[in-house]
Amino acid sequence: MGITEVSISEMIAASPCAWVATVNGDVVGFSMIDAGDASLFAAFVLPAHEGKGLGKELVLVAEKELFKHHPEIWLETEKDSRAAGFYRHLGWSNEREAKNNQIRLTKTRL
């Protein structure tokens, strides 16, 4: 998939593309975008911190940055995952099949 330490470092150096959530100074989640590609690249929260709104805030800040550059944004996630339901709840839709049991969801700037 091309995800390497070098490729991630280059993405971070190129533009604002990553945010972290902290609790008591500890990083407990992050989101990351590929602004050039209009995609939400990643969003994760440690299991002990799920259900506290951190994931939603991380996705919303990533969306805000993507919508500065694109009228429509996208992500891919596993078809039957909890993440897919989470993204749908946040308004991601237009589901299409992608490779390896993944789905592609999009969201349009309002």
How would the blueprint of this fold be written?
Elements: H1 5-14, E1 18-23, E2 26-34, E3 39-45, H2 54-67, E4 72-78, H3 82-89, E5 93-97, E6 102-108
Antiparallel strand pairs: 1-2, 2-3, 4-6, 5-6
Task: Outline the structure in words.
The chain has helices at 5-14, 54-67, 82-89; strands at 18-23, 26-34, 39-45, 72-78, 93-97, 102-108. The protein is 29% helix and 37% strand. It is an alpha+beta fold and 110 residues long. It has a single domain (5-108), classed as Aminopeptidase (3-Layer(aba) Sandwich), CATH 3.40.630. 20% of the residues are buried. Strands 1-2-3 form a three-stranded antiparallel beta sheet, covered by helices on one side. Strands 4-6-5 form a three-stranded antiparallel beta sheet.
Please tag this protein with its features.
Aminopeptidase, 3-stranded antiparallel β-sheet, 3 helices, 6 strands, globular
Q: What's the CATH H-level homologous superfamily?
A: Gcn5-related N-acetyltransferase (GNAT)
Number of helices: 3
Mean pLDDT: 91
- In helices, the fraction of residues equals 25-40%
SSE string: HEEEHEHEE
In the CATH hierarchy, the architecture is 3-Layer(aba) Sandwich
Strand content: 35-45%
Q: Oligomeric state of the chains?
A: single chain
Calculate the terminal CA-CA distance, rounded to whole Å: 31 Å
Tally of separate domains: 1
Task: Tell me the number of strands.
Answer: 6
Give the C-level CATH assignment.
Answer: Alpha Beta
Give the overall shape, derived from the CA principal axes: globular
Structural class comes to alpha+beta
Major sheet:
3 strands, antiparallel
Radius of gyration: 14 Å
